[in-house]
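Q: Two folds, back to back.
A: First:
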Amino acid sequence: MARPRITNALLDVLGLLLEAWDQQTEVHGWQIMRSVRRSGPTVYAVLDQLEDAGWITGSWERRPADSPAGPRRRYYRLTPSGAEAARREVPVPARVPPPRPRPAPGFGRTAHPRPAG
């Protein structure tokens, strides 16, 4: 299991997979493409690399026999070791600075001219 080549596309996909890991859910390829705003070939190349490295697993959607026709979805999730590796690779989102205090009333307004005198 070779370590995948770290690219911006891979980091985008890993970030989404980490969110799904934290929420204990799975995501399918179309969700990933839409969320990270990357093309299908790019996303599926990344997913193949991650699966080859053992960082993710994929499983096909199970449907009852009487379900509407259409392609089945393939769902992906991080493996426990993949989640650890992803946390090492994906940068922690920048912290949002605390809100600035509001200026006192009248601050920044044009001062009224003082009477001459």
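A: Second:
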Amino acid sequence: MVAHANFPQSAASSYLIKNLRNEYLEKLPFEKEYFQEIRDENSYSIPALNLPGEFYENLKIYNNASYKSKDTYYAGILHKQGRKKIVVIVAAQNEYIKNQLINLKLILLLGFLLTIGLTFFLGFLFSKQIFLPIRKMTQRVKEINTENLHLRLSENTNKDEVGDLAHTFNNMLDRLETSFESQNNFVSNASHELSTPLTSIIGEAELALSKERNPEEYRQAMLIVLQDAERLKAIIQSLLNLAQTGFDGKKQQMVLLRTDELVVNAKSAVDRIYPDNKIHIDYSLMPEDEQLLKIKGNESLLTLALTNIMLNACKYSNNDEVKVGIGATNQHVVLLIQDKGIGIPASDIQYIYDPFFRASNTGKIKGYGIGLPLARNIVRIHKGELKVSSVVNEGTLVELYLPAASRF
């Protein structure tokens, strides 16, 4: 338009273009117009402008060119008026776009900063809300000690990770409370069981030494001392056996064993203590495949566990009939020891695995309350399970489930 306005093909067109330009086109800041008539085909440049040679080469080849230097834009064409060739160049600065770009940069920067601030703020609120149950849980755990192990964490109804964590903590606290109570009971009962024979031994010794006595009196005193010393030895040996079964099962020597042979060995051990026992081994449940009776275990420990269970059955049934059944599945070898004794009260069943605990109906039947906890520890070492069910005055059934050797 600049070219046609200044170098028109006719006066009318020049007037029309100037009017259109003045009325409808925006006047850009620092707008300047440059003209150069080409008299030499080798020189298209305008000395007043410091434009690169590529700009003029484009004019020569394509008849138009453009260039930008900092904030100034240059646009040029090669205009023809008759036989004349004229280089027309327009230069201007687009302040509107420049301001728009500055505003856009400012908006983007402010938006970026606001977005970061909003993200941090929302993240803080979100994390505070998310970790609120964990903070409450942490505070609650700090309040729990040995004096109030009965306290528990509140569990929400949602099936999420926080609920699972609270449930796991409560299960752990249940085990800790049970272990702590068992330990307290063990210490209390052990001190009582150990101090009773010691007190008797010391009392008899002091009584015997208090004055001169005849040989028979000394002999009676020594017999009492011997009996209490043997009782003390038995308690200590039971405690040692119980402690040894607390070791990791991998430290025990495990070999391939047949459970029917273990039962016979345990029966032989009971025969030496109760020669007139009425233990009857029931072979009717045994599988036809003898391989199903084989387990991997420690022979001496398993024999000890079975012996203790059989001795209990004889002792608490007044030496009545005791049935020992041997069976097997593809997964387990099953041993059933059933007596017709005094049974265990329902209120005492939950405590039968506590060392030194004895049921309320045992009366004057001698015992230390270690046999059953010892047997369960041994069964656990062998990755098995021991179950006890009982009815008062009808008898007790002990079930042992030991993993078959084929599972290993």
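Q: And?
A: The mean pLDDT is 83.
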